[in-house]
Amino acid sequence: MKKKIKINEEQENLLRGLAKIIAQRGFASPVIFLLESMQPLNYIISQIMAYAEPFATFLVNEKNYNNIIAILEQREGIDYFLTILEDEENIRLVEQKKRKAVLKDIKKMKKVAKKDKKSFLQKLKGLKK
Fold it and tell me: Which of 17, 55, 71, 73 is the most buried (most CB within 10 A)?
């Protein structure tokens, strides 16, 4: 039985935002692989991040950085993020399939329109004679 992760709304939004950015850029698979391999070390990584906080907060928003540390301190933190990331990746893939289907339909419509244009022009030529 998995433990419930203690997470607030701000942390949830942060994780969803990160997952969305990663998925949109097509890096979901490498990030999932990396996080899965680092999962046993999540608490140690959170402590290293806490140690590096004074330096890292020059580059990253301090509140977001501390939220990530708080999430990583929990054993289920990475699992929770991976679930969100996989959901975002699935959403991206579904949207991509829809876009491909729409483009395919547009190409079909262009072909039909081209045929119709040719037949229409031929009919016009026939009427002019």
Answer: 71
